[in-house]
Amino acid sequence: MKADGVQRAIAFTQYPQYSCSTTGSSLNELYRKASRGEGGKIKWSVIDRWAMHDGLVNAFTNLIIKSLSKFPVHRRSKAVILFSAHSLPMSVVNRGDPYIMEVATTVGSVMQRLASVDGFENPYRLVWQSQVGPSAWMGQQTSEAIKGLARLGDEEEKRLSQIPQQSKKELAELASVGYKDVVLVPIAFTSDHIETLYELDLEYVQEGKELGMTVERAESLNTSPFFIRALADLVTDHLKRTEVDGASPVSTQMMLRCPGCKNPTCGEQKRWFAGWGN
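The chain above was modelled as a monomer; its predicted structure follows.
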């Protein structure tokens, strides 16, 4: 960028939900390098979060509907939607990181859109994956949720089997929740990588099958036309907003540090971007 003489740039996070451990640390690194002059004289602004953007919500909604359509009609509305996001250590959560809240807002927005578009009111939960190490992390873990649903499904099947003269289809229709029908949605990832292709597809989906479940993994956003349109709209709207005289290059929410933050670089970075990278 320095060699090309770039004078205007947008730091556009590809993490829709803000966390100090993802977007925050990336902005800190950009600040460290740019403030040393490694990028030249660039006027910076930031798109730091977009958890409830209409285009993002539409993209997730369409991919979920596509997955639900794979179930028989009489089971479709009862399938459990498991929204799976990368977990965080509780030490990060407890210092006030907004990630958990922002992932939940995405989930809520998607479920509202599902209900408004096609009347889907499926049972759902937000669960967490990719925990490493012995310390406490945000839960419930995705794997444990799948095991728990399988157990509850066995209990429900046993209860319904005691109702006389019912076919398997009729039993499924009597059930209030399809515990053993699951749509697994990677709600905090925008593209496929090891935590979707391996952890979700090869570990969790297979685990569900071994427990007698039907687990459909919703596709990642990847090259979804709704998603690509959302990215373009975000940049277009940001440029329109920031090119107005007196506009701020950062969001109000970005300027709020976690109440428990003790990293001085975070404060320096926020002030630097708020001054357009000066």
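The chain has eleven helices and six strands.
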